[in-house]
Amino acid sequence: MKKPALLFFALLLISFSAMAQHEPWWKSTVFYEIYMPSFKDSNHDGKSDFKGMTSKLDYLQSLGIKGVWLTPFLKSPKVDNGYDIADYYQIDPDYGDLKDFKNFINEAHRRNIKVIMDMVINHTSTECKWFQESRKSKTNPYRDYYIWSDQPNNWDSFFGGKAWAYDSTTQQYYYHKFAKKMVDLNWANPKVKTEVAKVLRFWLELGVDGFRMDVINFLSTDPDRKDNPVKKGQQVHKFDVDQKGVKEAIGMIKSVLNEYPDKFLVGEVGSDQLKVLKQYQSPKMLDVPFNFNFGSIPHFDAHRIFRELKDMERQMPGYPTLFFGSHDMPRLMSRLANNDPDRASCLAALMLTAKGVPFIYYGEEIGMTNIIAKDTTEIRDIQAMTHYHLARSAGKNEKEAMQVANDNNRDKSRSPMQWNDFSHAGFSDHTPWIKVGQDYRHTNVAEEERNEQSLLHQYRQLLQLRSNHKALQFGEYKYLKMNADCILFSREYQGETIQAIFNFSDHAQSINIHHQKVLIGKTDLQPNTFLIIQGNKKIKFNHD
């Protein structure tokens, strides 16, 4: 080979290497959401804590997790389980102290696990110093940190009821999109932006690798607070979300992160419109927004799942997010898998091989299921309790009101992680079950570890597969289609092609793969099973 040709190929290899190096780390990362109160209790007080969580980092590493998302852990009265922050600079004592947090971060990083933290900047607790000062007088320096009015508009709270609460000290109303003790910050005030930037830098200096921004498009940035329209008796949230100035605020947040290398910004954008989500995704705003259209499908529907994948590919310019569970929705096993571990495994395989950033909700890997409250003493969730009281006020009896509460109860997916026993310290005496045929069994990590055919082992294999193949981390779709109730796609990156088939039909499918390499699965696809292969030759159904 002549020297110019050798030089060309050398430059080509360098170019490919540079491409790989320039891919952001979060594209290759599978995140694991830890709901702070429920993961691992080290001191037997019924609450998870940083020491307990640190003790389980080896478990997460063995699972193949490269990133952890922590729900709020800052000092809070926990009206909404930490999403009501009283002090942005203190660890809540339930979870430990700053030393425990630093140790957790250091130990996670030692295992090559990134850590992002939930940051709530739409509102604070009413116990926050800023609000305590704000309510003292109309001339207090902190007064305009929040939104006050003599005459409230018609805005409703997203938790039910009106979004304005009367404060007798200054005889004005304050605005709260959620619970009355979760008061909205006034993002039209530059001082609020300065305070938030200071908070972000504090945690970035301590080593967090990014933030998950709670309800980030709900920020109140526009002082022109028009009444929302009402259609068919339901309020349309037209003027209280996606306000003028929200994008500028997110840009400010991203600029703070850009002061530190390789940080990740994911946002919860409260919208079911992809055209809204994509407005917030750019190098100057969010790296990725959560897409709840995909993540919160209420019931299993393979065609709906396929349609959401297709819509994300067509309508979202950047990388999407992939998840089937979170602390705000019923569990995957109960909601989508109908207590079938095979279907749960197939859904997990889809999430971990499709194009996007996957987020596993704690306990999904062992098939944890929903818990149901028998009465109000078993409810912690402020949203559920608000709906319960509204139902009772509307004349519903106790049984009917409990049904309304459970329909809106986010506690159902927040029971403690089951490690090697079935205790539920701090919760009611419920034990999740998985239905297998006509039998029922407990689910916990210890039992799943002993069973090589378990859901946990399937998750490990899938995470290892994703880690071993760049096409499953960075690849673009060559095709994405549906055939005979099977979802099929092919992803390609730097010459490697991975093809995947997920059989969600009620009968077996025989597949001809032309002697390509099977990475996981079998060519005789049973219902609710999957096949991942390496190679770019066309896959054919034998009945085609």
Mean of pLDDT:
91
In the CATH hierarchy, the third-tier topology of the domain at 476-544 is known as Immunoglobulin-like
Number of helices: 17
Poorly predicted runs: 9-20, 424-429, 436-440
Q: In whole angstroms, how far apart are the ends?
A: 46 Å
Largest sheet: 8 strands, parallel
From the 3D coordinates, which CATH architecture of the domain at 476-544 would you assign? Sandwich
Radius of gyration: 24 Å
Q: Strand percentage, roughly?
A: 15-25%
What's the total number of strands?
27
CATH class of the domain at 476-544: Mainly Beta
Structural class based on helices, strands and sheet pairing = alpha/beta
Strand order of the largest sheet: 15-14-11-5-2-1-17-16
Helix-residue proportion: 25-40%
* Gross morphology: globular
Core attributes:
alpha/beta, 17 helices, single chain, five-stranded antiparallel β-sheet, 30% helix, Immunoglobulin-like, 27 strands, Oligo-1,6-glucosidase, domain 2, 544 residues, eight-stranded parallel β-sheet, globular
Structural write-up:
Helix 8 links the parallel strand 14 and strand 15. The chain has 544 residues and is of the alpha/beta class. Among the domains are: 45 residues, Oligo-1,6-glucosidase, domain 2; 69 residues, Immunoglobulin-like, CATH 2.60.40. Helix 6 runs parallel beside helix 7, helix 12 packs parallel to helix 16 and helix 13 packs antiparallel against helix 14. Strands 15-14-11-5-2-1-17-16 form an eight-stranded parallel sheet, with helices on one face. A five-stranded antiparallel sheet has the order 20-21-22-26-24. Strands 7-9-8 form a three-stranded antiparallel sheet, with no helix packed on it. The protein is built from 17 helices and 27 strands. Helices cover 30% and strands 20% of the residues.
